[in-house]
Write a structure and sequence with these properties.
The chain is mostly helical. Among the domains are: about 120 residues, no CATH class; about 140 residues, no CATH class. It has 20 helices and no strands. It is rod-shaped.
């Protein structure tokens, strides 16, 4: 539309000039002739200037300094990218705006919203990620990772370190008391008492190998001298007393030390442990574990109460942040530091994106886009050139006529 008005202005100036030739002997005709001629010259000059920016006027490539934008394309692209990267979106500008953000307040407001998009975002994003996960490849990657890392994990050394820590820190006493407590609970159970009674009876019967011993045992049982229940209770009480004694703790600590030394120095045992470890890693059903985990996650995401659960969790986090301003400051500091680090690391990508995006356009597309964005305003320069030229020409004609007849 603007180009049409510019062409109309140029044609009107030409028609006005041609028409004024019939009245050039009159004073008014001379004024019109001067105005039209100056407007025509201004319009043609501006047409040439605007056209030379984008292409060769009339297709004449031998004209100097024409098709300026196309000839200086690389320099213009580099200037635009530099302007965006170093001026419009400079690091200092981005950092200054990041520092102005009240991240803690914004996070609390977002978490407290009754209809937050976070709930749906978590569900939708989680579902989409589960749908696109290559489960077989994931299982294979986990298997390879576990096998590669298992070579670096020496189980014996870890066990030695754990036992050393238990002994040096005194936690072996707590472990012994924990184990002894549960052993005593087992000893006091009815099932253990009955089992102990049956085992003592079997043991004594197996111990009496001769006929005389068996007769004596039978006689003692018939007289009630041998009471297996009482014997079982006595054995149990002796075991409990031993577990509660310092001697049992000393024996337990001594056993830990022996186990630690054996794990450290017995190469054959260490090798057997490593072989068991390798076999266990190979036997892990990674595919089944991955499938089960993904199905469980998908079921959790699709549960009706999932959104309510996320909403409740959001509000708890918001309340925690609101009640602890220092946590807000920590969160804000972490987010800002992380963002600034990302800006410093990836800021050059901004200029590269601008350069790559502009460079991938062909010459015709490049010219058309620039002409679309700025060419319309440039066409008004042509209109103004014709109008201003005409007014200047009329003014000069009036001044010259006034001076000559003064």
């Amino acid at each position: 539309m603007q180009r049409r008005w510019a062409n109309v202005a140029l044609v009107l100036a030409l028609l006005l000039f041609v028409g004024s030739l019939w009245f050039r002997h009159d004073l008014a005709g001379q004024y019109v002739e001067s105005m039209a001629l100056a407007g025509l010259a201004g319009g043609i000059a501006d047409w040439y200037a605007v056209t030379a920016l984008f292409r060769h006027p009339l297709g004449l490539k031998w004209l100097p300094h024409t098709s300026i934008i196309s000839a200086n394309r690389d320099r213009i692209i580099d200037a635009i990218a530099t302007l965006v990267e170093q001026e419009l979106l400079s690091v200092s500008f981005i950092e200054a705006n990041i520092e102005k953000l009240k991240i803690g307040t914004q996070v609390i407001r977002m978490l407290r919203a009754e209809t937050s998009g976070i709930d749906h975002l978590v569900r939708d994003l989680g579902t989409e990620l589960l749908d696109i996960l290559p489960l077989e490849q994931l299982a294979h990657m986990l298997s390879q990772f576990a096998e590669s890392k298992s070579d670096e994990l020496v189980i014996s050394d870890y066990l030695v370190n754990i036992l050393r820590w238990l002994i040096q820190s005194g936690n072996d006493k707590s472990l012994f008391r924990f184990l002894a407590k549960h052993v005593i609970l087992v000893l006091n159970s009815v099932e253990f008492t009955d089992d102990m009674e049956a085992r003592l009876k079997t043991m004594l019967e197996n111990y009496t190998k001769t006929t005389t011993q068996k007769l004596v045992l039978g006689l003692l049982e018939s007289l009630g001298t041998v009471d297996y229940q009482d014997l079982s209770r006595t054995v149990k009480e002796q075991l409990i007393n031993w577990l509660e004694s310092d001697k049992a703790l000393e024996q337990f600590e001594f056993a830990l030390v022996r186990i630690m030394i054996t794990l450290r120095d017995d190469d054959s045992l260490r090798q057997r442990i490593e072989n068991v470890k390798q076999e266990a890693v190979v036997q892990i059903p990674w595919q089944r574990l991955v499938d089960r985990g993904v199905n469980q996650l998908r079921t959790t995401l699709n549960q009706p109460g999932f959104g309510a659960g996320v909403g409740a969790f959001r509000r708890e986090v918001a309340q925690m942040l609101e009640n602890n301003p220092e946590h807000q400051l920590v969160l804000e500091s972490i987010v800002k530091r992380s963002t600034v680090r990302l800006v410093h690391r990836y800021h050059p990508v901004i200029g590269k994106l601008v350069r790559d995006n502009l460079s991938q356009m062909d010459e015709r597309e490049w010219i058309d886009k620039l002409e679309w964005y700025v060419g319309r305003d440039l066409q008004w320069i042509r209109v103004n050139g014709a109008l201003v030229g005409g007014l200047v020409g009329l003014t000069l004609a009036i001044l010259m006529h006034t001076v000559l007849h003064f």
